[in-house]
Amino acid sequence: MKLSHLVFFPAFSQSSLQANSASGIAVHDECKLTFLELKARRNHRYLTFKLDDGHQQVVVDKIGGQGESYEDFCKSLPDDDCRYAVFDYDFTTDENCHKSKIFFFAWSPDVAKVRTKMLYASSKDRFKRELDGIQVELQVTDPSEMSWDILKARAY
């Protein structure tokens, strides 16, 4: 075989290029790494994720520091666009035990573009599987569906 017939491909991270079979959208490695930092090191309070400008992959949008509140998290979600989000909820049980639950939010406001809502909906399950350790999922279209009381009720 002649060397001119050989084709060399550049190295790439396969997981960052794996596309969702339903929507064709990939998950960037930074999403998984940042989530692991939240889960294992507990150095983030929340994360938001979005589709990149070309709608080719999910990328990290915002990172909320450990000192930020649930109110800060809610304000970080756009009024007119979809996002995936993760919130690390710390609480104390009636038995005085300190616990934490990781919530996954599929934020899809009613005023978002229909095509965008469809892309986020068709990619959600694949993306969520990449984030091992999600304990509670909420699908939210309005801020009233993610009130503090709802969060507390779902944690127990």
Automatic annotation (TrEMBL):
Cell division found in the keyword field: no
Keyword Translocase appears in the UniProt entry: no
GO molecular-function term, one example from the UniProt record: actin binding
Entry-linked SMART domains: ADF
Keywords: Actin-binding
InterPro entries recorded: ADF-H, ADF-H/Gelsolin-like_dom_sf, ADF/Cofilin
Ranges of residues in domain ADF-H: 22-156
GO BP terms: actin filament organization
Protein family (similarity comment): Belongs to the actin-binding proteins ADF family.
Name this polypeptide is given: Actin-depolymerizing factor 10
Lineage of the species this protein comes from: Eukaryota, Viridiplantae, Streptophyta, Embryophyta, Tracheophyta
Recorded name of the encoding gene: ADF10
